[in-house]
Amino acid sequence: MGDRILLVEDDDPLGSQIVGHLRGAGFEPVWWREGRLLVAGDLPDVSLVVLDLMLPGTYGLDMLKALRTFSEVPVLILSARNDTLDKVRALKLGADDYMTKPFWPEELVERVRARLRRPTLQKEQAVVEVGPLRIDLQGHTVQVQGRPVELTRVEFELLAALARRPQEAVTRQWLVEHVLDPEREGTERTLDVHVSRLRRKLGPVKCVETVWGVGYRLVPGEDA
């Protein structure tokens, strides 16, 4: 079998259908029928979590919030709720994708495959390359198309935080809490100023992308 996928879904017919499609696609599904308030050590060794929201036991977003305190495993939300505010809240809490019910199980399988193909930064990596950007996390140096770029400490830490999750949205709140000095400059408005300065220093290649209502993400970029 391939990657292990944790499915958290209380609807038996739907859950059985999803498990069958995941298994048919070569994955090894693990099925939980209720939400659990996870702590470190509770999560099985899985490559991705497919998470319903309206669950007995623990509400899906509460489960996601707890999960994100100790794990960066990708999470794909399944929900009958299609309100934009629900989607934004899920993304802010750390979800990687959001699908509304009803849906085609074949599409779910393809989204799982697509998410597992996305590059992620392994702990032992010291250099990250995204498009024309080359970021040396240990040497604290940055190059754009081979050209050195001088950044301040905050600008470098901001770029490094995005580089650790390439092509994924990182919330403004998380960046404020983990990059900025909370006693001196810990506001989202200050964060936006640093992003603006970072973009100017990176030049015409647009690598730092705004995810409206959520935050920012690092993408391969394109010439302006």
Automatic annotation (TrEMBL):
Keywords: DNA-binding, Phosphoprotein, Transcription, Transcription regulation, Two-component regulatory system. GO terms for biological process: regulation of DNA-templated transcription. GO terms for cellular component: cytosol; protein-DNA complex. SMART domains: REC, Trans_reg_C. It comes from the Bacteria. The keyword Transcription applies. One of its GO terms (molecular function) is phosphorelay response regulator activity. Residues 125-220 form the OmpR/PhoB-type domain. The modification 4-aspartylphosphate is found at D52. The keyword Phosphoprotein applies. Residues 125-220 bind DNA. CDD domains: trans_reg_C. Residues 4-116 form the Response regulatory domain. This is DNA-binding response regulator. It comes from Corallococcus carmarthensis. The lineage of its organism: Bacteria, Pseudomonadati, Myxococcota, Myxococcia, Myxococcales.
